[in-house]
Amino acid sequence: MKKTSLLSAMIGVLSIVSTSAMATGFVTLPSTGFTVSGGTSAYTLCNTTGDFGTYESIEPTFDPNGGENNTCAVPSNNPPESGYTEVASASRNVVTNGVTIATLTDKVWRNSAGTSCIYGAKLKMKNADYNPNVGGTQYFEVNDLQRAGFSDRGPVSIAYNFVTRAAGQSDEVLFRAGLTKTAVVHQVGDDDQPLTSVAPISTNWVDFTSDVNYNDPDGSSMRDSSWFFVKSGCTSATPAALTGALKVRQLGQEGQPDLTISVDAYAPAGANTN
To answer: What DSSP line would sit under 60-126, residue for residue?
Structure first.
């Protein structure tokens, strides 16, 4: 994510105009996808300021007049929606080649009726070389985070929460999300909403596209993801972790090798990762 340049600033200004408050809060992901030019896409667009990490993204804002750049965004992460109470929380290590490259905070909130749950995930990347067998330091870049377990638990909706901290330590925004198991790299000029011929719809998986890296090759780094939320039907059963229910994926946006790391994560009772 380039953080300085006149071009970045100009694009940022244009992005504010084009992405001002349209669908703040949870956005439903229909099992039929979204109508786009040329066909149908599994993806809805959220905050595409910065062109998927090519330039500086602009954080969502909220005010009585609606704010800006806040499509899919919610102003709180505890709870992400009123009427929900936290019922489970865990901290999990994200490991590859025996190296812990990130920590995952995994949470579940449930409504009072016990019929709807919100599953939340947030990544914090570490200063770690994920492949010490190669010269230099290789920092894992998370281009997509995917969560499983939502077949027959619709309607499924998504949101994200952005946390502002000290300069250079704020979260990265959510660019897009969709019902698909197929993550697609986004480079300059690519379609923002890939067609279902490229990323087929999967009602069991939700894919979140972002750009999180402790030390990004493009010259700037956002080490923390936003909170990524999935809201779906659930039961009053005690939340349990499902093996491999979450994937973090590096897709080579700056030429890195394609890599996927599977992590256990909370999922609705009886869910699977098919």
So the answer is: ----TT--SS-BTB-S-SSSSSTTEEEEEEEEEEEEETTEEEEEEEEEEEEETTSSEEEEEEEEEE-
Q: Residue 218: is its pLDDT beyond 80?
A: no
Which of 130, 24, 121, 125 minimizes the C-alpha distance to 77? 121
Closest by Cα among 163, 137, 14, 147 to 75: 163
Do 50 and 1 form a contact (C-beta atoms < 8 A)? Answer: yes
Q: Could you give the 3-state DSSP secondary structure of residue 8?
A: helix
CA pair distance 29, 8, nearest whole angstrom = 31
Tokens of 225: 């993801």
DSSP secondary structure string for all residues of 129-192: -S-TTSSS----EEEEEEEE--TTSPSPEEEEE----STT-SPBPP-EEESBS------TTS-S
Here the tokens at position 146 are 């995917």
Strand pairing report for 176-178 and 205-213: antiparallel
Q: What is the mean pLDDT of residues 45-62?
A: 90
Average confidence score pLDDT of the chain: 89
Element (H, E) at 260: strand 259-267
Q: Give the mean pLDDT of 77-91.
A: 97
Q: What is the mean pLDDT of residues 28-47?
A: 98
pLDDT of 80 strictly over 70 = yes
For the segment 261-265, the average pLDDT, to the nearest whole number, is: 98
Indicate the pTM of the whole model. 0.90
* Per-residue pLDDT at 104 exceeds 70: yes
Of the candidates 203, 114, 73, the residue with the CA atom closest to the CA atom of residue 151: 203
